[in-house]
Design goal:
Length: 302
């Protein structure tokens, strides 16, 4: 009799952060600057995302960059002249902040020369990732700092294998903005089995109100599927389409996220994010909140 020994699932150690989109919703700001570099208070959005990956124990971060990649690479690199100037002024606080972004993690870069969609951006990570499971964090999507969403998704992957997406319940009018999942309950309150995925469905045909938000833990088998995935909605190679195929085999689960998520690639959400983050900052709130209250009182009713 052969003893069946289960292969341990390899640990998730790599994060892939796609940041090569055109960011057309934010033009003209994004003409020469990636939208992921737009600041939320005083840090670019993508730094919060990299900090989240590092916080979840991922110590190898691959950024998928595009046309205007330099500002991203510079941001996560040492800035010797600036550091010397701050040291000469004995401005240790700012020096710490400047150094922090270059010491966060081992950063790697790969270029997506043609922005052919999120699925294509993820496929650009195949050589770096190899045969391990990996996390994908969209560079313009922020999760409340300190929320354990990604750690939970990694735990679900370790337990069940396959791929895991983050799902958030959205109002019916908004399902057409997201990838949308057909789900079945599991024995875990916050985990669903995904039976189908549809990219940006019309409200009438959406399988549920569970929208896929910008966090994924993918099995490396997604690369083989992506290689054969034709351009879908918007002429782009969609990650959702590849995950749909894996969902058809029962290999995709969703973690139901009930926390706060901020889409900084959209102007309305960007403005709200900036106000919320500023209002929560100890160094800014005491002055900012009273000003905001007065400002709102002065606004004419609409
Ligand atoms: P979005 O669809 O929000 O990005 O992609 P976009 O196309 O840049 O935005 P708009 O609609 O024109 O304003 C989600 C994430 O996937 C990345 C984006 O940078 C963003 O982080 N992405 C998208 C790529 O890296 N490559 C692509 O080809 C497309």
């Amino acid at each position: 009799m052969v003893n069946h020994v289960e292969e341990p699932t390899p640990a998730v150690t790599k994060a892939v952060v796609p940041a090569a989109g055109l960011g057309t919703r934010f033009l003209p700001a994004t003409k020469a600057t990636p939208k992921e570099m737009l600041p939320v208070v005083d840090k670019p959005a993508i730094q919060y995302v990299v900090e989240e990956a590092v916080g979840a124990g991922l110590d190898d971060v691959l950024l998928i960059t595009g046309r205007s990649k330099r500002s991203i690479e510079d941001h996560f690199d040492r800035a010797y002249e600036l550091e010397e100037a701050l040291a000469a002024k004995e401005d240790w606080g700012k020096l710490d902040q400047v150094r922090k972004s270059s010491e966060l993690s081992t950063m790697h870069y790969v270029r997506q020369t043609d922005p052919r969609g999120l699925g294509h951006a993820v496929l650009c990570a195949a050589r770096h990732v190899g045969h391990e499971p990996f996390a994908v964090l969209l560079g313009d999507d922020l999760i409340e700092p300190g929320d354990p969403l990604l750690a939970r998704m990694i735990e679900v992957r370790q337990r069940f294998g396959g791929s895991v997406v983050a799902l958030m319940e959205v109002p019916p009018a908004e399902v057409s903005l997201y990838g949308c999942a057909a789900v079945e309950a599991t024995s875990e309150d916050d985990v669903a089995l995904i039976t189908d995925l549809v990219e940006k469905p019309a409200r009438e045909v959406a399988p549920s109100r569970w929208a896929v938000i910008g966090r994924y833990v993918c099995d490396p088998s997604v690369f083989d599927v992506l290689r054969d995935t034709p351009p879908g909605r918007g002429g782009e190679i969609q990650l959702t389409d590849a995950l749909k195929e894996l969902a058809g085999k029962g290999e995709v689960r969703g973690v139901l996220f009930r926390g706060r998520r901020y889409d900084t690639g959209n102007k309305q959400e960007y403005l709200r994010t900036m106000v919320e983050f500023a209002a929560k900052r100890e160094d800014l709130a005491a002055e900012f909140i009273p000003w905001l209250r007065t400002f709102l009182r002065q606004l004419p009713e609409t």
